[in-house]
Amino acid sequence: MDYGDKLFWLSVVIQRKYAQICAEFDLTPSQATLLCAVRNEPRQMADLAASLGMTKNALSQLVDRTARRELVGRASSAQDRRVVMLSATPTGKVLAEAVYAEVAKRLPEIARNLDADDQRDFERVATAIVDTSDLSSPTSNQPITP
Asked: Which InterPro entries match (predicted)?
């Protein structure tokens, strides 16, 4: 296997673990990612779509499905009524915090078979990749995905 192939399979390992965790909370991975992205503060729908790599239409459909479960809500921006803001409802925030905590606790299990030095290297490299990616919110340096 070449490097690209290894990265492909690493993404499969991560996505499978993430999907398992999300299913335990009766969420799709997309719904969980959306909730975690807005758990701390409202986000502009347009910025959120760009951060998540989704079209505005696809994000709107995801928001519709998640809003029917009363986990997120839309509101017009106080500064510009044309801008739609998305935020977690109180129920959505509690669920997002629980999902985020579980992901933070269990996702590192993918490296459990590495020795301690390799685990630290893996953490350092993963942190560098995320820190230099375009996954950050425009208003903070915190990654939007768990």
From this structure: HTH_MarR-typ, MarR/SlyA-like, WH-like_DNA-bd_sf, WH_DNA-bd_sf
Q: Tell me if 93 sits within 8 A of 38, measured CB to CB.
A: no
| Torsions phi, psi for 58 (to 5 deg) | -65, -40
Q: At a CB cut-off of 8 Å and minimum separation 6, what does 23 contact?
A: none
Q: Residue 142: left if φ>0, alpha if ψ -120 to 50, beta else—which one?
A: beta
Distant-in-sequence, close-in-space partners of 45: CB < 8 Å, separation ≥ 6: 56, 59, 60, 63, 74, 83, 84, 85, 86
Q: Which of 86, 82, 96 is nearest to 63 (CA)?
A: 86
The count of other CB atoms within 10 Å of the CB of residue 125 is 10
DSSP string for 79-101: S-TTSEEEEE-HHHHHHHHHHHH
Tokens of residue 82, six digits = 């044309």
Please report, in tens digits, the pLDDT of each residue of the chain (146 residues total): 799 999 999 999 999 999 999 999 999 999 999 999 999 999 999 999 998 999 999 999 999 999 999 999 999 878 888 889 999 999 999 999 999 999 999 999 999 999 999 999 999 999 999 889 876 444 443 444 44
> With contact defined as beta carbons under 8 Å apart, do 89 and 73 qualify?
yes
